[in-house]
Amino acid sequence: MPLLDIQDLSASYGKALALESVSLQVEPGELVGVLGPNGAGKTTLLKAVSRSLAASGTLKLEGRSLLGYAAHEVVGLGICHCPEGRRLFSELSVRKNLELGAYLRSSRQEIAADMDKVLTLFPILRERLDQMVSTLSGGQQQFVAIARALMGRPRLLLLDEPSVGIAHKLKIEIFDAIRTIAASGVAVLMAEQDALNTLRVAQRIYVLENGRIAHQGSSSEMAGDDHIRRIYLGV
Question: Is the per-residue pLDDT at 104 higher than 80?
């Protein structure tokens, strides 16, 4: 049974249809990339999964329908969403932002252990724990956003454009960290425009165009697809 099973999912903003009959799956521990241009529906897809946007169709986590759940309830089921633009509490410290990621949890011992894990994953944050987030670089703030989502101890991590606007060196660190997260057993559904790095770290790829799945396959298959190479890799 897939961890996440989506069949014929549709979502709208008012009368504007943003997703139309989208179907995809994520297996436990799998890293799946969703590529597509701006306006393709990538953010809408992740919002529908995290229940911050209404949708119709089939949306299941380990066979359980999510359509009747509110956004805060799916966090308790193990879905944590790291949104585009990070949405951090910029005037709070790195430490406070990370602690807020664990707001539904009660075991201080487990929270402390997970704090150590995310600081090992992003070592620079250990040095910045008591700094206000607003004083960090964009790349470092993205580290905080991903780490905060991990503090919820997700089974499924949703990442929306984690590399946008990030310097190349930090971008590589972010993608390598995402691959490490998936290798630890956390399933990842990642929406991205950086096709090269997404193909490098993801196991499977879906391509969204105009709200519909236009292409899908393994990363190696997509890397050899003429359409993907021409449109998304520029070769």
Answer: no
The confidence band for 148, taking pLDDT boundaries of 50, 70 and 90, is very high
For residues 112-119, give the mean pLDDT: 94
Domain 4-231 has CATH 3.90.550.60: no
Between CA 2 and CA 25 the distance in angstroms is: 6
Q: What is the CA radius of gyration of the chain?
A: 17
Residue 235 has pLDDT above 60, yes or no: no
pLDDT of residue 86: 75
Rounded Cα gap, residues 184 and 181, in angstroms: 5
Domain ranges, ordered by start, for the chain: 4-231
DSSP string, 87-123: ---TTSBHHHHHHHTTTT---HHHHHHHHHHHHHHSH
**SS3 at position 233:** coil
Q: Are strands 56-61 and 64-65 parallel, antiparallel or unpaired?
A: antiparallel
